[in-house]
Amino acid sequence: MNYQTSIREKTGTILIYAILLLFVIFTIAPLLFMATASFMPSREIVKMPYKWIPETLHWPNFFKAIAGNDGRYSFPRNILNSLIVAGTVTVTTVLLACMTGYGLAKFRFRGRTVIFMMIMATMMIPFEAIMIPLYLVTTKMGLQNSYGGLIIPFMVNAFGVFMMRQYLITFPDEFIEAARIDGMGEMRIFWSIIFPNSGPTIATLSILAFRAQWDNLLWPLLVVQSEKMKTIPLYIVKFTTEKHSDEGAMMAVALLASIPMFILFFALSEYFIGGSAVYSSRKG
């Protein structure tokens, strides 16, 4: 009986690992294709079967990716715009969501639940439903072709407030009460105790907020018309819709545009994964 149980457990373990391995392969394969194809000329990319290792490193792909099909070298300015927009939105999202979540989690006041439910209700409204009214407000305020038009509508989001509130509900009240007894004000408590100890959630929220704005195509497509204010998704769309597109250069553009996201993730991954383990053990 024990032998049969052991066989079933081993079979189940092997099956789980096989399924996970398939997920890993399906996840990594497109990224690996992008990375290898960016170093190939177009004629090698379209060959079948596909050779995953380039015969030679075709560096002109990257030169053309940066110069663009029109040779105007708008890539550096566009990627700088994306860094400014995504970075600013990430900072404001984290700060405002953390403050709001702290207030909803640790302060007792009339209507707290109603306010929280109203914030959560906004998550049920698709962006497409408010896109046109938001665009009209933006144009009335004269924020077209500006960083303000790209940043202000996304400075805070309901999901960030939800994440911070749920995390801070588990934060021990004793620390806050002890700080108040010592004479610390609420803002000092927030900056000295709450914010530094919210690392796991802050890191996760930072990655999600940055990625959302880095990949945002629809809103910049509406509010930005000038070349100097376009973001990297608009550059990629323009690059891939040119009449004479180069597949190798297209892969190079995609690879270069992915680098900031990879840097951010790997810079914060160890921190928020390690912090999440501590948080889970404390919660348990």
Question: In a few lines, what is going on in this structure?
Answer:
The chain has helices spanning 2-37, 42-45, 60-67, 75-106, 112-121, 127-140, 147-151, 158-169, 173-181, 186-194, 199-214, 218-223, 232-240, 247-283. The protein is mainly α. Helix 13 runs antiparallel to helix 14 (247-283).
Specify the CATH homologous superfamily of the largest domain.
Answer: MetI-like
Per CATH, the architecture of the largest domain is: Orthogonal Bundle
Portion of residues in beta strands equals under 5%
Fold-level CATH name of the largest domain: MetI-like fold
Structural class by SSE content:
mainly alpha
pLDDT average, as an integer?
A: 85
Count of distinct structural domains: 2
List how many beta strands DSSP finds.
0
CATH class of the largest domain: Mainly Alpha
Shape: globular
How would you describe what is shown here?
This protein is mainly α. It has two domains: 61 residues; 210 residues, MetI-like fold (Orthogonal Bundle). It has 14 helices and no strands. Helix 4 crosses helix 8 and helix 11 packs antiparallel against helix 14. The C terminus is likely disordered.
Provide key terms for this protein.
mainly alpha; MetI-like fold; disordered C terminus
List the helices and strands and how they pair.
Elements: H1 2-37, H2 42-45, H3 60-67, H4 75-106, H5 112-121, H6 127-140, H7 147-151, H8 158-169, H9 173-181, H10 186-194, H11 199-214, H12 218-223, H13 232-240, H14 247-283
Helix pairs in contact: 3-14, 4-8, 4-11, 8-11, 11-14, 13-14
